[in-house]
Amino acid sequence: MFRLTVLYDNEACPGFTGSWGFSALIETGKETLLFDTGWDGILLQKNMEKIGINPACISKLVLSHQHWDHIGGLPEILCANPEITVYGPSSFSENLKKEIKKRATLIEVKEAIEISDSIWSTGELGDKIKEQSLVLSTEKGSYVLTGCAHPGIDAIMDAALCHGKIKGILGGLHDSDRFERLEEMELIAAGHCTAQKEKIKEFFPSKFMEIRAGLRLELTGY
C-alpha cells in the first residue's frame, strides 16, 4: 500500500493553498519520497507543515521534467534536507545538474529504474520535452503518477505496462485525448496541466477524481 498526498496543485482543499504547479508525497511505510516541488518552495513547505511532514524525513526526490512549475521549489527542499537523493532526467541542463550536485546526491535517469521498493521510473520519455513518470506497483496492479504527461498517455502507459495491469493514473494529463487508454482503469485522478479535464470527467464519472493540494489517497492492490 502507498499513501499519496498532493502537496501542490492549481486547486486546493480547504485549509491548503493552491498555486500553479504540482508536487506529491509518497509514503511507503519504509520511506518517504517527494515527486516534483511546485514552483514556490515556501508554499510547498507550508502545505507540508499542515500534514505534519518535515522535509528532513524525505529520503528521495523525483523530478519529472525541467519546467519551472515542477522544480521551482527545489532550492528550499535542498536547503531543508541536504541528505536527500535527487532523481532527475539526464536531459536536464548541465548547469542545473551541476547546481543540484553542489547540494545533494544526483542520480541521472535515462532508462527505467527502480527508485524504491515497488516504485519505478518509466525512464525519460518524449521528444521535445523529456519527462519521467512513476509507477507504483502493487500485487494487484499499478498506479501511474505523472507530472504533466508531455510525452503523451500512450508512451507513458506503454512504459508502465511492463509492471502489470494499470489500476489508476494520477497527476497532470496535459492535452491528451486518448481517452480509450483510460477505460480499464479504476481511478483517474487529474489535476494540474490537464486540458481535457471536463471531458474525462464526462466520459468516466465514476472513476474520475479532481486533484487538489491536500488530497490524501491510500493506493492499494485490492
CATH superfamily: Ribonuclease Z/Hydroxyacylglutathione hydrolase-like
C-alpha Rg (nearest Å): 16 Å
As laid out across the biggest beta sheet, the strand order is 6-5-4-3-2-1-14
CATH architecture: 4-Layer Sandwich
Mean pLDDT: 96
Distance between the termini: 9 Å
CATH class: Alpha Beta
Structural class: alpha/beta
Largest sheet: 7 strands, mixed
SSE order, as H and E?
A: EEEHEHHEHEEEEEHEEHEE
Number of helices: 6
Explain this structure:
This protein is an alpha/beta fold and 222 residues long. The protein has a single domain, classed as Metallo-beta-lactamase, Chain A (4-Layer Sandwich). Helix content is 21%, strand content 29%. It is built from six helices and 14 strands. The strands form two sheets. The protein has a seven-stranded mixed beta sheet with strand order 6-5-4-3-2-1-14. The protein is globular. It starts with a strand and ends with a strand. The relative contact order is 0.18. The mean pLDDT is 96.
Summarize the structure.
By secondary structure, this protein is α/β, with parallel strands linked by helices.
List its salient traits.
222 residues; alpha/beta; Metallo-beta-lactamase, Chain A; seven-stranded mixed sheet; 6 helices; 14 strands; 21% helix; globular
Provide the fold topology:
Blueprint: E1 2-8, E2 23-27, E3 32-35, H1 41-50, E4 60-62, H2 68-71, H3 74-80, E5 85-89, H4 94-103, E6 105-109, E7 113-116, E8 119-121, E9 134-138, E10 141-146, H5 153-160, E11 166-171, E12 187-190, H6 197-203, E13 208-210, E14 216-219
Parallel strand pairs: 3-4, 4-5, 5-6, 10-11, 11-12, 12-13
Antiparallel strand pairs: 1-2, 1-14, 2-3, 7-8, 8-9, 9-10
